[in-house]
Design brief:
CATH topology of the largest domain: Protocatechuate 3,4-Dioxygenase, subunit A
Bound molecules: benzoic acid, fe (iii) ion
Shape: elongated
CATH class of the largest domain: Mainly Beta
Amino acid sequence: MSGTKVSRQLFSEERSAEVVAASFEDTPDPRLKRVLTSLVHHLHAFVKEVEVTEEEWQEAITFLTRTGRTCDDVRQEFILLSDVLGVSMLVETINHRTGGTSTESTVLGPFHMVESPPRELGADIALDGKGQPCLVTGRVTGPDGEPVPGALVDVWQANEDGFYDVQQPGVQPENNLRGLFTAADDGRFWFRSVVPRYYPIPDDGPVGELLAATRRHPYRPAHLHFIVAAGGYAPVTTHLFVDDSPYLDSDAVFGVKESLVREFPLVDDPEQAAEAGLANPFRTVHFDVALKRAGGAGRTGGTTP
Ligand code: BEZ
Ligand code: FE
């Protein structure tokens, strides 16, 4: 057969990414097209840089398959994988830029699986009375420092042994160390609790194997979780970290931001303890939360074109 030579876009090691990216040329959704094109370029560059062997690729596929099989209604091993690779925190941080003025966000985590029970300001969320008592106070404000009356302050935390209530059914009372508070007219909130302990993320699955293989520990430093929300403002999902906790410098999921670490000073004064409704001595912490207005900048200002 004679004839003119047709130049075909065939696959080669050199041109692999371009050839595959070209296959997305007709994708109608421009965002999907951009995401897939970029993904293919980065993925191919990674395979070339590392020169992945066939055995390694098979191992990776087996690992991801086992990660999927470890998921069920209450366990999400893929999110955990994203957490320990720092991707959850990166996505969170990119999508909730603060401009240095509002409270920084951090990961949601898997233990917000039940709705927090509404409670009165000042309530004690340590239903079993176990642990070192702690008075938590704070104020919700907007970007101009204005109080946000009626802001919803959703709180959940581990106990003094580092377990959430849902991890110890029958040991901890239901809804222990959880509460949904409504901020007062001046934006203030306060409640009684106990100082939480550091704890390990679930490490009995593929993600735990990855941590062990890389000599990483599974621990998170002690923290209280918060979601603060109010009409007209963007909600913030964040933590309050205990400043004398181990693992602040090596959180297994990279969730620590300096602006979220607070001292929990000890108060040893029976009068103040009686006023707070806590046993003496007790610890205190103050956490002000500044919200952004709804519809404000999210992903703007990033480094990628
Ligand atoms: C948590 O803080 O509850 C958490 C976050 C990420 C992974 C596991 C636990
Ligand atoms: Fe947690």
